Amino acid sequence: MLIPHDTRVALDAVVDLVNTAPEDDREDGLADVAALDEFVRRHNVSDVDRLGPRDLRAVQGIRDGFAEVFAAPDSRSAAGLINDLVAAAGTTPQLTDHDGYDWHVHYFAPGASVADHLAADCGMALAFIVVAGEKERLRRCEAPGCGRAFVDLSRNRSRRYCDSRTCGNRLHVAAYRARRREAAG
Length: 185
Hints:
Blueprint: H1 5-18, H2 33-42, H3 53-71, H4 75-89, E1 94-96, E2 104-106, H5 114-131, E3 138-140, E4 149-151, H6 164-184
Antiparallel strand pairs: 1-2, 3-4
C-alpha cells in the first residue's frame, strides 16, 4: 500500500493521539497543556499558536472520536465517524510545501485550532485508509493488557502487536517458556 509522506505523518499522529488516552493501567498522556504542547512539538504540528486549557479539552474530545474510528466494526461505521470529525473541523484543503517537504495537502483552515488541525489532517489520513478498502488495517494490539492502537502497514496485513519488540516479543518469549516447561514435564 503506497502512502504519501504527509498521510503517513498524520497516521502516526492519530495513532499516538489515540494512545494517549487513559486506560486500565495507563495515565492520560494528555493530562495537561504541557503534555499537549509536547505532543504538538513531537509531531511537528504546524501553524499552532499558544495552547491553553480550551485546546486541551478540544483535543481530548477528538481523541475520543478517533478511538471510536479504531473500534468501528466496519468501514461504513468508520466513515460516518470520520465524516463527523472532518466536517466539524471545517476543512479547507490547501497545497503547501514547507519545512523541506515537497508539495502535500493540508486540510485545515489557516489559523485553525490545534484540535481542528488534527481532526482535519488525521481524519483525512484515516479516510484514505477507508477509501482504499483497508479499514481492517486500523487495529488494536492483541497482547493481553495492551490494546494500543496502530495502523498495520505490513504487506499481508498480519501485524498483531503495537510493537514487535515489546508486546510481540514478550508474548513470544512467554510462549517459548511455556513450551519448554511442558517439554520438561
